[in-house]
Design brief:
The complex is a heterodimer of chains A (166) and B (422). With 166 residues, chain A is an all-alpha fold. Chain A has six helices and no strands. In chain A, helix 1 packs parallel to helix 3, helix 1 runs antiparallel to helix 4 and helix 4 runs antiparallel to helix 5. Chain B is of the alpha/beta class and 422 residues long. The chains are: A mainly alpha (166), B alpha/beta (422).
């Protein structure tokens, strides 16, 4: 793994733990803080074992913690930021671990730099849109919410496909 | 064709779960939580590669190499289409392959019109190796939308068995080919070994006159005769039956036999003999008699690809073609031997072939101390006795036997053998 990737990975890992801890701590939900802190040794084991499935489980756990936090009135801003950091962390985990030994490290290195740049853009854009979205307060009936969700998803994918074609 | 992989499925599963949770709980902020995931998926879609127009080729540093010698594989990938943000190369792992340098899986990005050269170095055991395609997985930077292509890039490698250089091997067969060679023929002719004295014939060189004997017999002249040196027809018979070449843990007895065949072929050919070879496996690989380096290459090529046969038996030797093993030629049988092989080999001897048995012996590797139970020790003793009796029977019918304990090197074994004269 490249040095910049390694640093970004650790920063994201730290943020993905710290932000939900803050969120649960500020709401005085200490059991939540304890659950999140128990993930730290789990993450450490994950790094040693280097098994893909553990990193996937960690992501699902973080999403679950954030979703539960949102349902139990923990700060949504911190939860969304925590999930974004967990997503970035999960994506960076999926790198060739011994690429440094490769004879073509310069080629692999440029690929990793590009990957990091695109990931940064995607996560930052997602975080900004989500944080802005949190300020919108709309009261819609169930059916309208369902349709809106499908419409928004469809529009997003159509938009990206349009960008790609052009 | 773009396919959904596990990574994409996980993200979609999270997004759908959050949507459903938001609908059930009627909490809009849960939908907001899906936005980073949706943008992540969207970015992947945006940067996913379109049509892939990649050409690939591979080249080996040597198409014929010796066992355990590093071979370098060079892969060239040229992109004639649009840029691909992530291209993953997956090379197949060959049997018994040891990677010395580089990686078999590499990820890189390739821009339009760019040519990328990748390489790795490996070592492999004896055998024939074939690479047919290069597997490339083109995807977006996150590896969400993958497109797998198998580009044709064929390459073959032949890894020859190791041949040792044999310095001294006291083996003197009766020559069979009337051409100058290394073995004394017990017949008068041009040579350097003194054979006898005969009466002078007109046309004899004056240098050949035996002046001492001529002085004793007035009015008579005598000439010296020298022993003619001729070459032999030597046939190598390699036993590749699975039943005799059992595996002992990771040890393969057949590999020892192959090394012995390669070493003997090199030795006999460098001595100036005519060599042929028969590998007794399912497909009966045959090399007809020939001389020199080209014949050695033919033999080594055949040995490189030979494998154990399940169905072949020693009875096949009843129908040996004379073209392969000419009459009265020397046949060197390299085989661990079975008791039931005696009759077939005795028949060859009766036909007039000069035989030499080189038998790799695995039994002594398992010392009696290593045996786990008394049954094992009895089994080992019985095997050793059975083998000793068999080898004795061969010696009784005039077939010299070299009992090669595979713990010892072949060179040491052959050089320590007392002179074998046929």
């Amino acid at each position: 793994m490249e040095k910049s990737n390694e640093i970004t990975y650790h920063v994201c890992q730290f943020a993905s733990i710290l932000l939900p801890v803050f969120g649960y701590g500020l709401s005085a939900k200490w059991w939540g803080v304890i659950i999140i802190l128990t993930i730290i040794p789990f993450g450490w084991i994950l790094r040693r074992i280097q098994t893909k499935i553990f990193s996937w489980i960690t992501l699902v756990i973080f999403v679950g913690i954030a979703a539960y936090g949102l349902l139990s009135s923990v700060s949504p801003h911190l939860m969304v930021a925590g999930v974004s950091a967990a997503l970035a962390c999960w994506e960076l985990e999926d790198q060739i671990p011994n690429s440094i030994k490769s004879s073509t490290s310069s080629i692999t290195g440029s690929c990793e730099k590009y990957h990091l740049k695109i990931l940064g853009i995607a996560i930052a854009a997602g975080l900004i849109v989500a944080e802005v979205g949190l300020f919108l307060k709309l009261s819609l009936p169930f059916g309208a919410v369902f349709l809106a969700a499908i419409l928004v998803s469809f529009c997003i994918f159509q938009l990206f496909s349009l960008f790609k074609r052009t | 064709m773009t396919r959904m992989n596990a990574k994409l499925n996980l993200i979609l599963l999270i997004v759908i779960s959050l949507f459903l949770a938001a609908l059930v709980s009627r909490n809009g902020s849960l939908i907001i939580l899906t936005i980073p995931f949706l943008l992540y998926l969207g970015t992947g879609l945006l940067f996913s590669p379109g049509e892939i127009q990649v050409h690939a080729s591979r080249a080996l540093s040597s198409l014929r190499s010796n066992e355990n010698k590093p071979v370098k594989m060079l892969l060239t990938i040229e992109n004639n289409g649009p840029a691909i943000p992530r291209l993953q190369l997956s090379e197949p792992v060959q049997h018994n392959m040891i990677l010395v340098e580089g990686l078999l899986e590499q990820r890189f990005m390739i821009s339009s019109g760019e040519k990328v050269e990748l390489h790795y170095t490996f070592q492999v055991a004896r055998g024939r190796y074939l690479w047919q395609t290069i597997k490339l997985i083109a995807s977006d930077p996150f590896g969400l939308y993958e497109n797998t292509v198998n580009l044709p890039a064929e390459s073959r490698a032949l890894v020859l068995p190791e041949q040792f250089t044999l310095q001294r091997f006291k083996f003197h067969p009766s020559p069979t080919v009337k051409t100058t060679g290394p073995y004394l023929s017990r017949m008068a002719g041009s040579g350097i070994d003194f054979l006898g004295v005969r009466e002078y014939h007109p046309g004899d060189s004056l240098r050949l006159l035996n002046w001492r004997k001529t002085a004793r017999h007035p009015r008579c002249f005598f000439s010296k005769e020298f022993e003619r040196e001729e070459m032999a027809d030597i046939g190598l018979l390699l036993d590749a039956r699975a039943v005799t070449n059992q595996y002992f843990g990771t040890e393969n007895l057949f590999e020892h036999s192959v090394h012995a065949a390669a070493t003997l072929a090199k030795f006999f050919l460098s001595s100036g003999n005519r060599i042929s070879m028969l590998v007794l496996s399912d497909n009966l690989a045959r090399i007809f008699p020939g001389y020199g380096k080209r014949q050695l290459i033919r033999i080594l090529d055949q040995l490189a690809g030979c494998t154990l046969g399940e169905r072949v038996t020693f009875d096949t030797l009843r129908y040996l073609p004379d073209r392969l093993f000419p009459s009265r030629s020397v046949i060197v049988i390299i085989s661990p031997l079975l008791p039931q092989d005696f009759s077939t080999i005795a028949r060859l001897r009766a036909k007039g072939y000069q035989l030499l048995l080189l038998s790799p012996n695995p039994a002594k590797r398992f010392s009696l101390q290593d045996s786990k139970s008394s049954f094992d020790s009895f089994a080992i003793r019985a095997t050793n006795l059975e083998r000793a009796v068999l080898l004795r029977r061969f010696q009784q019918i005039g077939i010299p036997v070299i009992d090669w304990e595979i713990d010892q090197s072949l060179i040491k074994t052959l050089q320590s053998v007392r002179s074998i004269r046929m």
